[in-house]
Amino acid sequence: MANAQMRAVRSILVALAPCGELHHGDCVGADAQMHRLFDREGKRITIHPPTDAKLRAWCEANGLTTQLAVVRSLDPQPYLTRNRAIVDACTVLLAAPHGVYGERLSGTWATVRYARSTAKPLVIVRPDGFARAETVLPGIAEKLAPWTFPTLDPRADGYTDLAHRKMICALRRDSGVFVQQAARLFGVSKDDYTALEDGSLGLMERDWGALVRTLENWPVVGSAP
């Protein structure tokens, strides 16, 4: 995980305390980092290893496990089966993907999509430290407030009227420049944002925090309806 991502994850875990058990997929990267964190705190850890060992971290036997934690390792399973087993076993899924989009070939995002399909409480932490809580348990949303970014839905908590108005004005003033900036900022092709010219703001909701930071430096001309 990126440094900002890891800091946010640590803070979220504190906010969600007590968090007594971790289920992870034993892959290099976020799985190994979370294993080390829970091991140091003497928590329970359940490992769901993949049958394909190419990216496996071998947390239980690779110096990442001390005598403090209670660790059990399940039988290896294919990635898809193993990812779904993790979702089914947990109370809240905490995902820390490499990017901000739901890449189709990403195991992390496939797991997120499965969690959404089962209405599992879900928190996604982006590399820049921003987080989104979805289908959260009662009481969790308030705890996550410092890390969540605003919503475009004016009926929901966290709606930022000024930022929303700036966005609409920017789109109406020069949607072509806006689309180019958005494509550069989020690392996707310009064609993926053509719908913005028709006022389809929903595409930007996933990256609303970064978008607002960009728009704060833009002059606003005119007024939103």
Structural overview:
- There is one protein chain.
- A 3-stranded parallel sheet has the order 1-2-3, with helices on one face. A 3-stranded mixed sheet has the order 4-5-6.
- Mean pLDDT is 69; it is low at 146-160, 193-210 and 212-225.
- It is globular, with a radius of gyration of 20 Å.
- The protein has 2 domains: 3-147, Rossmann fold; 161-215, no CATH class.
- Strand 5 and strand 6 (131-134) form a beta hairpin.
- It is built from 7 helices and 6 strands; from the N terminus they run αβαββαβαββααα.
- The protein is an alpha/beta fold.
- Helices cover 38% and strands 10% of the residues.
What attributes does this structure have?
single chain; 225 residues; alpha/beta; Rossmann fold; 2 domains; 3-stranded parallel β-sheet; 3-stranded mixed β-sheet; 7 helices; 10% strand; globular; disordered C terminus
